[in-house]
């Protein structure tokens, strides 16, 4: 079953379009889009973004364009050539700041090869930051299903995740849950792996910011994924520092994503 903070249908790609044609799209019509050509004048096949609508795209095949509409809630992404969650799409709609963190395993190896991405999106007027987590490589056979995930202060992973320092905490607060009033800015809580050792989740946070003038600005800082669950500051004395989330499995540096 899918929990309320998980996005349970991350989308499809053009490679499996034939299998999903009856339920992955709302409409498919011949478009007026002019398919691109290479330097020799040969048509280029593939998917291309709609001019104004991120839920629509053109599929070019042998020089002929068909306009498709993604299923409800998904946007076209030219990088993956498919319909994906809006936070991880490269389609630009509205005035958003975007960021991306490309996860790599800790060095030295902490026992699990975690790869994937964490995407961020915030309106340029401020407000909550949307987070899309898409990770793989967790051990599905161990007892740990929840893993603490935090923004850390330093924007370096040279020599491994230890270089990231402690939790991003510009207010010198105690560690807490994402819902706590008294928390580190970097306290993003727990992510939950599925039975295959993968994580696909959407989080919403009201502390971190992608706006450069905001003191909680996270571009250039780092994300760390930990081996065990975050106890949200409700355990022993160490809990108020790091949530007892255990070893650092993987980390990445948060970079502005201008697509």
UniProtKB/TrEMBL annotation:
It catalyses: 2 superoxide + 2 H(+) = H2O2 + O2. Its cofactor is Zn(2+); Cu cation. It holds the Pfam family CBM_14. InterPro entries: Chitin-bd_dom, Chitin-bd_dom_sf, SOD-like_Cu/Zn_dom_sf, SOD_Cu/Zn_/chaperone, SOD_Cu/Zn_BS, SOD_Cu_Zn_dom. Binds 1 zinc ion per subunit. One of its GO terms (cellular component) is extracellular region. Keywords: Copper, Metal-binding, Oxidoreductase, Zinc. One of its GO terms (molecular function) is chitin binding. Gene3D superfamilies: Chitin binding domain, Superoxide dismutase, copper/zinc binding domain. It comes from the Eukaryota. Its EC number is 1.15.1.1. PROSITE patterns: CHIT_BIND_II, SOD_CU_ZN_1, SOD_CU_ZN_2. Destroys radicals which are normally produced within the cells and which are toxic to biological systems. Belongs to the Cu-Zn superoxide dismutase family. This is Superoxide dismutase [Cu-Zn].
